[in-house]
Amino acid sequence: MKFSERLLRCALYLCIPLLFWQCEKDNAAGNGQLRIELTDAPVDDANVQGVFITVTEVHVDGKLWTGADTKQTIDLMTLQEGNVQSLGIGEVEAKSYDRISLVLDLEEDANGSSPGCYVQTMDNQKHNLATSASSEQTIEITGSEFDVMDGSSTTVVIDFDLRKSLRYGNPNEPSSDYAFGTNAEMNAALRFVSKNRAGHIEGHCTDLITASDKIVVYAYAKGEYNRQQEVSPPADEQFGNAVTSASVDAQGDYRLSWLEEGDYELVFASYQDDGNNGTMDLQGTLNLTTLLGIDLKSISVGVSATVSIDVTVTGILPL
Question: How does pLDDT run across 125-165, given as a tens digit for each residue?
Fold first, then answer.
């Protein structure tokens, strides 16, 4: 065998394993299962009975997600205090993702009735949320990366914050008392978190002083709360930088759910129905003491952990 032939054969012996290794590398990512669930932070309006959205498609990093294979109309008001509703489960490429898009049908709900997205008030009237003549609206949600591993299942929870996403009045339909916010406001009103990286804060609020009609607790990323900035805007834009919120129930209990691992500060606010019309008006933020002297400006939430914080109202800082 000539030297050149031996050299070629040796090169082939070296290249073939490399080719197999490259093929294995290209196929190494594989696929995993992605489940997407929906939850809600409450709206500060006692006149609202239900808020219905109709989801037709979900996109993950710009690609159609096959988990949402049927059109769904969902009452977001039933998804508070950590309750969730599954949008489905579908197979995706095993890698990291950081964008989810919801496509909403504005014209028709899952039963073919109009409108597709609306507020239902206590008098059972439907208020169309569409702010244009468009038949659909896409909400782009960005957040921290979540990973889908080969052969495993990952669950992501989308928080559709009604308090941030609804506005009073609708220029597109004068008969409607409510509307979705601008595209930018809608994109900012929703967040998502990987379920296995989330924790919760819960506790009891004792108020024997203010006679509030409603108390709402807001969670902010540590150091991000600026009182003047948060209480000054119009009523439907107040506390706009809060990560999430929860109402204190009639028994004094509250629960802030699906918080990404990290440090937070809590703010409690007092509301009253001054006009006896079901609309809650902000009276001020509450002064509080905590059991064991917990600092409400520095609360660490760990993965799959529930932090318990009981507070007692000592006064109110009015507007």
Answer: 999 999 999 999 999 998 889 999 999 999 999 999 998 89
∠154-52-126 over CA atoms, to 5°? 175
**Helices marked H in 103-161:** none
- For the chain, give me the number of helices (H) and strands (E)? 4, 22
Between the alpha carbon of residue 155 and those of residues 88, 193, 194, 224, 290, the distances in Å are 10, 9, 6, 28, 34
The pTM of the full predicted model, rounded to 2 decimals, is 0.85
Residues pairing with 312 in the sheet = 206, 289
The 10s digit of each residue's pLDDT in 276-293 is 776 788 999 999 999 888
Nearest-5° angle of CA 276, CA 279, CA 280?
Answer: 100
Helix (H) or strand (E) holding 102: strand 96-105
Structure tokens at 24: 């294995």
What is the spatial distance between Cα 168 and Cα 162, in angstroms, rounded to a whole number?
A: 12
User: What Rg do the C-alpha atoms of the chain give, in angstroms?
Assistant: 25
Rounded Cα distance, 245 and 255, in Å = 9
Query: Most distant CA pair in the chain: distance in Å?
Result: 101
Q: Does residue 319 contact residue 272 with C-beta atoms inside 8 Å?
A: no
The 10 Å CB-count burial string (b at 16+, else e) for 268-285 is bbbbeeeeeeebbbbbbb
E runs forming strands in 126-261: 126-128, 136-147, 153-161, 166-168, 178-180, 190-194, 198-206, 214-221, 244-247, 253-260
Distance, in Å, from the CA atom of 303 to the CA atom of 199, rounded to the nearest integer, reads 5
